[in-house]
Amino acid sequence: MNPNLDRLQPYPFEKLRRLIAGNIPPGHLEPIQLSIGEPQHLMPRFIGESLTAHLKSLAYYPATLGSQELRESIATWLSWRYGLPPLDPATQIIPVNGSREALFAIAQCVIDSRRPDATVLCPNPFYQIYEGAALLAGAAPVFVNHLPEGGFVANLDALPEATLAATQLVYVCSPGNPTGHVLRIEEWRRLFELSDRYGFVIASDEGYSEIYFDEDNPPIGALEAAHRLGRPGYRNIVIFTSLSKRSNAPGLRSGFAAGDTRILKEFLLYRSYQSSQMNPAVQAASAAAWGNETHVAENRHLYREKFDRIVPMLAPWLGVRRPEAGFFLWARTPVSDTEFARRLHAEYNVLVLPGSFITHEADGINPGAGFVRIALAAAYDKCMDAAERIAAFCQKL
Ligand SMILES: Cc1ncc(COP(=O)(O)O)c(C=O)c1O
């Protein structure tokens, strides 16, 4: 067996399952899950219609690079969304089956594990795939704290020179899961400078970019920052995003990677061996989805309504604020995060994720200890019901 498999952590949801294993929540309260970031708003109808209209395409093997139509639709969206000059759909975009597999695959593609010090920087808290991807690529993950006191900004300059010199890949999550932090242009500038100095690749995980609250101020992305900072060819940058949150279609498994052609060329080679091509009917539906903004704006409106109501209900108890983007509340708990989550489930039948299940201790601090992640991804009424129960639970505490 691959010995690196032993280094993988149990998945956060497996840890949660174990935490609540002995609980018998009150039967009269409907169970409400705010632990998992699975959007529960309706998927737009046209996605299903497009899927069924293209069933005949299942008779053919699709290409790893995906259809021209899909890549053109993505290129148009990227230019429109981020004010970028036209992208080349042939060399700057690769469709992927959801960003998760691609975020994993990029580490397998870029890490040179012949170097015994191969290092991958991950945010802390982090999406669990970053850690698993680094370990299975034969690299060591190094966790960089994102703390509320520091405005959730990663202080890369505090890292030892040897760590930066050994870094081959940096995962960035903006908008952040779970913090909601959106990297400022100055943060990107510093990251690009360090990438130039040490040669690492930046994998920018941007799946929450379309869930924001100020219509006039959408989150900036890595390609946009690179363009604005005059970084030709998006050197050493690859972004990853998907339709999962933007179009409420997590089961569609549809996203893309875009950026530096030099890296994408190698990534395509890697994918032609490792990855499954995207189902052609999914490609057609995805092309339609990237070309439609109406449903995305409507989706944002639903999130705005929920956050406007729920944040004031929970702020007095859990110190929450509306995130800059994304659909998570990163809430400070009055007791330990695991006790909070376990008892909230046992007494009120509401599930949230203990922060320490998505963090590690780094520099003597565990940024998830004493926090829970609350995903306001369920329907409005369920979220409101859950918020009332959480407030009642906090009052009791
Ligand atoms: C931070 C982050 N990145 C990536 C993903 C993967 O999403 P998908 O594979 O649906 O694009 C998720 C899913 O919840 C996530 O929270």
Short account of what is shown:
With 397 residues, this protein is an alpha/beta fold. 41% of the residues lie in helices and 14% in strands. It has helices at residues 12-19, 45-53, 68-82, 99-110, 128-136, 161-166, 185-198, 222-228, 243-246, 261-274, 280-290, 294-318, 337-348, 380-396, and strands at residues 32-33, 93-96, 119-124, 140-145, 167-173, 201-205, 237-242, 255-259, 328-332, 350-351, 353-354, 371-375.
Taking the sheet with the most strands, its summary is: 7 strands, mixed
Fold-level CATH name of the largest domain: Aspartate Aminotransferase, domain 2
The molecules bound to the chains, other than polymers, are: pyridoxal-5'-phosphate
Q: Output the structural class.
A: alpha/beta
Number of helical elements: 14
Q: End-to-end distance, in Å?
A: 47 Å
Strand order in the sheet with the most strands: 2-8-7-6-5-3-4
Low-confidence region ranges: none
Write the layout of secondary structure elements.
Elements: H1 12-19, E1 32-33, H2 45-53, H3 68-82, E2 93-96, H4 99-110, E3 119-124, H5 128-136, E4 140-145, H6 161-166, E5 167-173, H7 185-198, E6 201-205, H8 222-228, E7 237-242, H9 243-246, E8 255-259, H10 261-274, H11 280-290, H12 294-318, E9 328-332, H13 337-348, E10 350-351, E11 353-354, E12 371-375, H14 380-396
Parallel strand pairs: 1-10, 3-4, 3-5, 5-6, 6-7
Antiparallel strand pairs: 2-8, 7-8, 9-12, 11-12
Helix pairs in contact: 2-11, 3-11, 4-5, 4-10, 12-14
